[in-house]
Amino acid sequence: MKKKYSIFTLIKNAFSNNENWQKMWKSPEPKKTYDIIVVGGGGHGLGTAYYLAKEHGIKNIAVIEKGWIGSGNTGRNTTIIRSNYLWNESAFLYDHSVKLWENLSQELNYNMMFSQRGVMNLAHNEHDIKEMKRRISANRLNGLDTQWLETKDIKRLVPIMNTDNLRYPVLGAAFQRRGGVARHDAVAWGFAMRADEMGVDIIQNCEVHSIKTKNGKVEGVKTSKGFISAKKVAVVASGHTSVLAKTAGVRLPLQSRPLQALVSEPIKPVINTVVMSNAVHAYVSQSDKGELVIGAGTDGYNSFTQRGGYDVIEETVRAIVELYPIFGKMKMLRQWGGIVDICPDASPIISKCEVKGLYFNCGWGTGGFKATPGSANVFAHTVANDEPHKINAAFNLERFSDGRLIDEHGAAAVAH
Amino acid sequence: MILINCPYCGERDQSEFSNGGEAHVARPENSENLNDKEWGQYVFYRDNPKGIFYERWVHSHGCRKWFNAVRNTSTDEILAIYKLNENPPSKESFTNTLKTPSGEPKVGSGNFTVKK
């Protein structure tokens, strides 16, 4: 039955102590065979299953997740959404996603808590200013709403920022108003619930051990619950994608590294936008609970430890405290790390490969959350038609031999 | 946070070092005969195992010398460190703590020092 959420269901369930909410999705035992198996139950994977069922009419799908859904990088990011990327290919891909975000709450009838509070990228020197103005021009040519802010405009938006009394003064910023934040669990749960309603099997606590291939064609996956055969296998396993690809004999140009984030104790609202700074390496927003959500950089070496080094946080917090002196005495509550898969050109891979029926959506590196619905949408198209959507055609594997790289190292707010 | 035993300076904090990626990647000698795909493999593709990984480090804020290390990327435990002119230890001399390719180690990162 279709689950509806509204103010009335909230009130009704409040009277019964919130004990009668329906389960959002079933947890079935895996069938022996599926048309498509999606490996990885994060936002991207669940979204892929949702769009496959909704837009391509394929219902015999399983999403297989090692832990519980949304427990990987979907639950480990800083939930920032923007599309102010330099190159045309990236701008189209990420803005496709922002446009889907804008209607996702209505489409899934589940509150994404999508808040377009704007995303600000600070400039601290002459080079930053020139680079950002170039980026703004490129963005505007691609129809994105990025604009230049002078220091006084920044001060008006974020009064607590120290703009002049610091080593790298704030000289201006690029600002995308349509950017913002969303609730990370909601996107996984929303996609899961609606995919489940259309007949997708969501199988949790089932680890894919290897991908089985025969004569250059995919046959299925070996899991902790036995072998499951499938006509097509779509791998969306972020940091572990290259490990799984290797079991099918496919080599991917990915390196996995821990990326950290941390949150402070909750305080009253002090910052109502997202502020990023590439140069001093700090970005911060405030969650609806009042916690400051702070993103750190990646560790400088490959690792799968979901933890990260303390020196990386220290560097970020140092910059935050200089930019916002009033945060100086705050306490940090939690810190965590997620394993991100980084491509040589810091752009994702959404592509077929040399094994027939095997597809990869990976390499999102430090910025996959913003792309969740867009990535899922074009990946579903790629898997269903065995051909890329025109938006993700450039994000293929061939670019690492023909040299058509999409270099977005400058787009991230964190070093990698 | 890892402590790395620099073969020239002794044990120092990891933040003094820079990682140089996978070790023992030789530049192809017949580069003029390679096609785009093979050249792309050399330029962009590196191993990314969960488990035993041979890698290069440089003591950037110390002696600035390069050396190699063998590390378990699922726990960050450094298993061996050897100089550039020394032969790499064989992979068989290390035990991988993972039962499956994408599994998690029984004792997570950083904790191995406590448990030992």
Q: Whole-number average pLDDT of chain B? A: 89
Helix proportion of chain A = 25-40%
Beta-strand fraction estimate of chain B: 25-35%
Question: What is the subunit arrangement here?
Answer: heterodimer
Query: Main beta sheet of chain B: strand number and arrangement?
Result: 4 strands, antiparallel
- The percentage helix of chain B is 10-25%
Rg from alpha-carbon coordinates of chain A? 21 Å
Distance between the termini of chain A: 45 Å
- Specify which chain pair forms the largest interface: A-B, 36 and 34 residues
Shape of chain A: globular
Unreliable spans of chain A: none
Run of helices and strands of chain B = EEEHEEEH
User: Order of helices and strands of chain A, N to C?
Assistant: HEHEEHEHEHEEHEEEEHEEEEHEEEHH
Total number of β-strand segments of chain A? Answer: 18
Largest sheet of chain A: 8 strands, mixed
Sheet/helix structural class of chain B: mainly beta
Q: Uncertain regions of chain B: pLDDT < 50 for 5+ in a row?
A: 110-116
Tally of contiguous helical segments of chain B = 2
